[in-house]
Amino acid sequence: MFEKRENEPDYALLNDASCQTLNRYGDPIDTVQVEDARRDQSLNINDDAGIGENPNRYKQHGFYFTADNCIACHACEAACSEKNDNPAHISFRSVGFVEGGTYPAYQRLNISMACNHCDDPVCLKGCPTRAYTKYAEYGAVLQDPDICFGCGYCTWVCPYNAPQLDPVKGQVSKCNMCVDRLEVGLKPACVSACLGNALDFGVIENVPENRTQAKTEIPGFPRTDITHPNIRFQQTRTTQRDMNRVDQSPVKYHREESSENFKPVADVKQGVKREWNWTKLLGSHENAHIAFTLSAQTVMAAFLILLSGYVFEPVKSFQSSSAMLPGLLVMFVLMSFGLFKLNMHLGKPHHFYRGFYNLRHSPVSREIAGVSAFYTGLLGYGFFALFENNYAQLLQMLFAAIGVLGAVFGGYYMYKLYRIEARPFWNHWHTAASFCATGLTLGPLLLAAVALVFSSMTVDLSEVLLSMISIGLVFELTGLTAHARSLKSVSSEGAASFYLQTTRYGNAYWLRNGLLLLALLLAGYMLFSSKHTLFLYSLLTVITLGSNVIGRALFYVVVIPTTMPGAFFWKNDGFVEHAREIGLADMPQMGVAYETHHAFNVGELIAAIKTTTMKQKFSQFRSIFTG
């Protein structure tokens, strides 16, 4: 147990004499019923079987922040990092600010934020490894870094940037509510360290002494309807109508006259000049996702089109031609490449199998299961295509069914995992349109390329493939138009993402749109003129592939999540990028680290296999895979 000092000051002690029954969202504050068997269980902190004596142990606790009192001294950050032994580039609690007005009516509003231990934690549902647990004790949402394999999906879905992905260790960690201190009647370390009495902690909805408000939102705090966060605010000073972030994010918060609430809108502080920015666009951290999604959607669509040959005569000629087996081989290689890139993108790629752990809730786990089933079906179908007996054909059909089910299931959840409330730019049906359009354009082009190389292209097959390509391009352009109209009319971070797309990456954005129109015109010309030459198909492939790569890169690089505001140097993506470029990241005090986590070392595995005894082999093999 945490050792409690005899002379702990009163402000560090938990003191909730009375509590309400329901919180403001209508959820019960009691985490379990009195007769529930989960009561009186030990948290086994440091293998200690003791149980805390707090009478409110099974009530939802939360933070209380008084913005009027915060002086941005960062004592809460320091106490949290010291308590959890965090490196300089990781901070479970961070202090950012928004500002508004001009001299002499300039205002700054400081915000200290950690995990809000929400009633409906989306990190828990999103995590494919089940590294998260919401405990009945104090309502704490705890995460186990040892189970995490570093996919970072929880950092995508959390609206408050609470989970922290360590670029060095390749794993996520977060605020644990200091449950070891709660068990002995102490408030979390950050609260006890606050100099201005801005932070407090206790059973949720209990307003601390000398406080008059318990708001759920203040300027700069993201929307609360996604997760029902357990934090309350007091902020009595009248603010300016527009409160601006000082970090690189082009977002500001505008107060509505009707409701007096602040809504995020685009901040055009970076000007309206259109730029290329190829280095940033194509050098994104998410390049592995670009490779995976494009290759997976291409191969899935090509495989489904190929199977349609059993009932669709124009495609049947491809199945019976010399291009059939090479086509399946190309699909297998392309799919293997995408899966390899995705797996090596993980912080701990040797723990990839943990991605199946949360099939009940996580769309990532379901996507992994579906894609794995498709990959198995593709491999089995191609293998048994080598044989011509009845048993082989029966098994081929079985694997074909597995592949179809995997493609449908995996493709659906490949789309669903991006419908994230905390990332408004993605949370639109355009995401589905884009993914389907990729399959409808690149899938037929893959089959056309193989058919042309092996002289298996027929007029009927070409017309079918060109029709699919044209439909896909129309679908993509329709989705883009609807997406742009939607983002221009909403008050969210999505509007800021669209601003970035049309300015910082504006030239690339319009190039992508132009390539899509050019590809549609070329496909239409080839279809209606019956010209199906290798040169025209090659030209169409280059144009279409270029538009898809640029479009998918824009999809990842411009998205702005509903995160908390940072400061000039701290929690500022612009400064992080700058520090890495000029070498400031070499200084630990900058709070910036390079992405240096190590992927699985094949050399170490080979060395383990060459050891003399089986016991040594097993021991070294286990140590490598467990880090």
Question: What order do the helices and strands come in, and which of them pair?
Answer:
Blueprint: E1 61-66, H1 75-84, E2 94-100, E3 107-113, H2 122-126, E4 132-134, E5 141-143, H3 153-157, E6 164-166, E7 171-173, H4 179-182, H5 189-193, E8 199-203, E9 231-234, E10 242-245, E11 251-255, E12 262-266, H6 278-282, H7 287-307, H8 313-319, H9 324-344, H10 363-384, H11 390-416, H12 430-453, H13 459-488, H14 493-502, H15 506-529, H16 534-557, H17 573-582, H18 602-609, H19 614-625
Parallel strand pairs: 1-9
Antiparallel strand pairs: 1-8, 2-3, 2-10, 4-5, 6-7, 10-11, 11-12
Helix pairs in contact: 7-9, 7-11, 7-12, 9-10, 9-12, 10-11, 12-13, 12-16, 13-15, 15-16, 18-19
Q: What is this entry, summarized?
A:
The chain has 627 residues and is an alpha+beta fold. Helix content is 44%, strand content 9%.
Tell me what the structure shows.
Helix 7 (287-307) packs across helix 11, helix 10 packs antiparallel against helix 11 (390-416) and helix 12 runs antiparallel to helix 13 (459-488). A 5-stranded antiparallel beta sheet has the order 3-2-10-11-12. A 3-stranded mixed beta sheet has the order 8-1-9. A hairpin with a 5-residue loop joins strand 10 (242-245) and strand 11 (251-255). The chain is globular. 44% of the residues lie in helices and 9% in strands. Among the domains are: 1-86 and 93-114 and 133-139 and 176-240, 2-Layer Sandwich (Alpha-Beta Plaits), CATH 3.30.70.20; 602-627, no CATH class. The chain contains 19 helices and 12 strands. It has helices spanning 75-84, 122-126, 153-157, 179-182, 189-193, 278-282, 287-307, 313-319, 324-344, 363-384, 390-416, 430-453, 459-488, 493-502, 506-529, 534-557, 573-582, 602-609, 614-625; strands spanning 61-66, 94-100, 107-113, 132-134, 141-143, 164-166, 171-173, 199-203, 231-234, 242-245, 251-255, 262-266. The chain is an alpha+beta fold.
